[in-house]
Amino acid sequence: MVNKFIPEGYKNLEVIDITNRGKGVVKSKQGKVIFVSGVIPGDKINIETYKKRRGYFEANLIEILKPSPNRIAPQCMHFGICGGCKWQNMSYEAQLHFKQKEITHNLKNFSGMIIPEIDEIQAAPKPYFYRNKMEYAFSNQRWLTSEEITNKLLPIEKKGLGFHKAGMWDKVVDIQQCHLQPEPANQIRNTTKTFALEHGLDFFNPREQKGFLRSLMIRNSSHGEFMVLIQFFKENKAQREALLEHLKKHFDITSLLYCINSKANDTLYDQEIICYDGKTFIMEEMEGLNFKINAKSFFQTNTEQAYELYKITRVFAGLKGKELVYDLYTGTGTIAQFIAKDCNRVVGVESVPEAIEAANTNAKENGIKNAFFEVGDMRRVFNQDFINRHGKADVVITDPPRNGMHPAVVKQLLFLQPEKIVYVSCNPSTQARDLFLMKDHYKLVRSKAIDLFPQTQHVENVVLLEKI
Fold first, then answer.
1. Tell me: the pLDDT tens digits for 245-267?
2. What domains are defined for the chain?
3. Which of 39, 58, 219, 390 is close enough to 51 for a disulfide, judged by CB 3.0 to 4.6 Å?
4. Helices then strands, each counted (H, E), the chain
5. Is 343 a catalytic residue?
6. Of these residues, 76, 178, 343, 426, which one is catalytic?
7. How far is the C-alpha of 28 from the C-alpha of 12, rounded, in Å?
8. Using one digit for the tens of pLDDT, what is the confidence trace for 310-356?
């Protein structure tokens, strides 16, 4: 029984919706819109507001009076603390419903286009253990639970290896088991931490910028190859080799890598990656195409659903064999190579040099001779000179990051005026925003979502635009 006093207007409220950030939406009896974490549509709840924002309030959940029919018990022991899988307490069918609803809402309200009947969202066959890449941070000041803080008799180990606590860049939630990546990923992470604790290795302190162990990345392919990369803040040859040898001895790791990163952030793109054992890459395969994935490669984190995403993209493009295709934001050229056999020529553009190097290597090893790749910032390289060099595209495939396309890229697309644009997006709101800029020149012919990220609010959506 909760004894906390709750104003009448915040009692027995029903959660009516959920935001694209995973927060439940309720309306108070006075009509105030309130966002609440940890709830799902259909819950009857008591709440306490703690912050006023422009147009809405934020509130803490006090108690659930009646759970939603869509509420289920989360599988993960860290649910609600680590902040990664915000929807684990919602049935998968409900997750798909609200993802589809979010896409439909954005297209209908913000694209400015006439919306045809939208295809049904494509579910993931594996709602758990689907990711092929996870990144963990070491911390010498991990996040402590309320039980650990209040129980003075409980021995506390302050070192941890896990995910950054939401909203706290310097705190890490220690993870014992994650349900997102297949084994032996959990075993590798836990073995790394155990060895480090037993041998007195220093964990990183981001505030003071000191320590030894900084981060751990684990990648895997669909046929069982694993890559492990440890970032060290400074070099200590004896300790580094002892840890890497321990992992080499206990696990079948295809690519065992490390780097020494003493800069302020832990991004890899400007770092020298050193191979301690095995290869510098792991291999992925789709329809007979092989892709080398190195430590810096961008590759969709759900391999099985990425294959389905690429098939949807190919169907939407409707290639007949004679087209010139631009693949904007090509990454390592996966989509470009996937559709190369169906067109005359495909040109990919990406800002990360290592990604383009990987794209060229993969294309060569796959025997693809009609795919070409360029490095450059999209808003600068995608210009008239680019068109003059490669020719006028019949079809453009664009797969931008979460913040969508730069207005200069949209402007150049409108100048180019390809017959078709296939827009792949991981953010339905920025996708709709970009479509609004093209509404006077293109019509929306088809839209289909695919779930690459079960247990989270994230979703991919593909739309087909045709010139009016």
1. 999 999 999 999 999 999 999 89
2. 8-66 (2.40.50.140), 94-127+300-467 (3.40.50.150), 133-286 (2.40.50.1070)
3. 58
4. 11, 22
5. no
6. 426
7. 9
8. 999 999 999 999 999 999 999 889 999 999 999 999 999 999 888 89
